[in-house]
Design goal:
Elements: H1 29-40, H2 46-58, H3 65-95, H4 105-117, H5 119-130, H6 133-149, H7 160-178, E1 184-185, E2 200-201, H8 224-230, H9 235-246, H10 251-258, H11 262-279, H12 295-307, H13 314-320, E3 321-328, E4 335-337, H14 339-350, E5 360-368, E6 371-379, E7 386-397, E8 400-407, E9 420-421
Helix pairs in contact: 2-3, 3-4, 5-6, 5-7, 6-7, 9-11, 10-11, 12-13
Length: 422
């Protein structure tokens, strides 16, 4: 061994007798690649992030509420970036068992910053794979941890993004192997004369916040109807469809990521697409390139929120709903198929004279999965505060509400919605 050390990990360099050509500067190809990345990918400006957090925090004021919410959202984003960078940098120190550091501080921060740049699109990818926002958050963190622990194995043969997608996809596949999730029809509801057959029950299904509009290629591949359909595919077929049809990867790229052949990828697509066609509405056979609710959809949402109160006009609500409207409430087993069936249920909960009266309602607009949504707040009898109760996501076709998916309120903060209003 020579007396010189590697310029990256400070480990011993191979002796001259063991190498050919010029004297080695790095001990391995991994260290050589890390040195290259450190030159090409500068570390994120952590000090600038800290300064921005201080600037926004110093101007915080609860009035007006719109600006207050915008500042809180900005703070949450920047503090989250700093927290993740610090945690990732700390992990390498916790896992280092040798006196000499494995990486220099700038490399630790640069690598953590590179992971942070891909966090949002990886969250979307994991969400498409598993259909749950909470699980997607956990899977992204698991992806980052696996990437951090395996960073020595990245030698640049593929892009850093493709390398992360490989880790994220395998993390999701491992999760789906551990958690067998099979859609099944809803159970019949005694005493309720439903219109049509029971829909599919996916208790794990959750909505995704509006920031998907900035990074998703199409709205349709994030809509709940697509998420429901794709959950019927085996995990490997699901991954192939997402990579090819949602992300637009070539079959060869997908095959490389999944460590399989192009023929296998093509075969998986051929088996998966008929299943999707059976479960998707006809108008989504060719996915349109829209990512935000249209003006018409926003107008329908406003009328829906006004009608969904005790003072609302039931005739307006009836006009908004399609005759065969479908209402589901995952993870609850309640479901209603048909406008008259649903309005009969709603009328009892809105009537102060009814023993099933639930309370007074207010709503705030939101966007979930690229669709119009209403955050519902209820003031229970004898209380003064309206508390978050439900997030209604509307699927609108031909000017009518064709489907309402009502979710529990614990994800309100992810949508920028408060948990209470007055």
């Amino acid at each position: 061994m020579t007396g010189k050390v590697c310029g990256i990990c400070e480990g011993p360099l191979p002796s001259k007798a063991d190498s050919r050509g010029r004297t080695a500067v790095y001990c391995s190809a991994a260290c050589r690649q890390r040195a290259y990345r450190s030159r090409r990918e500068p570390a994120p400006d952590v000090q600038a992030l800290i300064a921005e957090v201080g600037r926004v925090a110093n101007r915080l004021t609860p009035r007006p509420p719109e600006a207050f919410l915008a500042d809180l959202t900005s703070l949450n984003s920047d503090v989250g970036k700093l927290r993740r960078i610090a945690r990732l940098a700390q992990r390498t120190k916790d896992e280092n068992v040798t006196p000499a550091p494995v990486t220099e501080t700038v490399d630790e921060v640069a690598f953590a910053g590179s992971l942070e740049e891909h966090q949002r699109e990886l969250r979307v990818h994991c969400y498409r794979m598993v259909g749950s926002y909470d699980d997607a958050e956990d899977l992204v963190q698991e992806t980052f941890l696996r990437a951090w622990r395996g960073r020595e194995g990245f030698e640049g043969r593929s892009s850093f993004r493709a390398w992360l997608y490989r880790i994220a996809t395998n993390t999701c596949l491992d999760f789906l192997r551990r958690n067998k999730r099979v859609p099944r029809p809803y159970d019949p509801m005694p005493g309720v004369d439903q219109l049509g057959e029971p829909p599919q029950f996916l208790p794990w299904l959750q909505p995704f916040p509006d920031d998907v509009a900035e990074i998703a290629e199409t709205r349709e591949t994030m809509e709940l109807v697509f998420l429901t359909a794709i959950q019927h595919l085996p995990p490997k077929q699901r991954a192939v469809v997402i990579l090819n049809d949602a992300l637009g990867w070539k079959a060869a790229e997908t095959a490389d990521l999944l460590e399989t052949t192009v023929a296998s990828v093509t075969s998986a697509l051929q088996r998966a697409r008929p299943t999707l066609r059976e479960r998707l509405p006809e108008r989504r056979a060719d996915w349109a390139r829209t990512v935000r609710p249209t003006e018409e959809e926003q107008a329908i949402l406003r009328r829906y929120m006004a009608a969904a109160t005790a003072d609302g006009d039931s005739r307006v609500m009836a006009e908004l709903l399609r005759e065969d409207v479908l209402v589901t409430m995952p993870p609850n087993p309640l479901w209603f198929s048909g406008r008259d069936v649903f309005l009969k249920f709603v009328a009892k909960s809105l009537d102060p004279a009814s023993p099933m009266y639930f309370g007074e309602w207010k709503h705030l607009p939101a966007v979930a999965n690229g669709l119009p949504a209403a955050g519902g707040y209820v003031r229970r009898p004898g209380t003064r505060v309206y508390r978050a109760q439900v997030l209604d996501v509307l699927r609108i076709e031909d000017g009518k509400v064709a489907e309402i998916t009502a979710f529990e309120p614990h994800l309100f903060p992810a949508f920028g919605l408060p948990l209470t209003i007055t």
